[in-house]
User: What shape does this take?
Amino acid sequence: QVQLVESGGGLVQAGGSLRLSCVASGRTFSNYAMGWFRQAPGKEREFVAEISRSGDRTYYADSVKGRFTIIRDNAKNTVYLQMNSLKPEDTAIYYCAAKRTLATTTYDYWGQGTQVTVSS
Assistant: This one.
């Protein structure tokens, strides 16, 4: 089992920045690819970004490309999502998730989420 705990959410004005953190425990963190997803009210959960086990490969949703950056620190068992130039449409609950490899489609472990609210 992998336990994931997100933090760093909050209320920010449009154009502002936030950095989300997700700390993992329970298994060897570097054995898992990590991702961030989000779910806005009334909408389905959507992919935001993911990163390989070593951190050398990253992928982003078109809606966040150029504004968000996913990075990981395997020594701290932590994955981050740096969010810049935030827009009201970025408002959502943000979840981190873990899977064995980037090639795998399905994420196996999920955190409880952290709320991000962007005011206009």
About this structure: The chain has a mean pLDDT of 97. The chain is about 0% helix and 50% strand. The longest strand covers residues 18-25. Residues 32 and 100 are 5 Å apart (CA to CA).
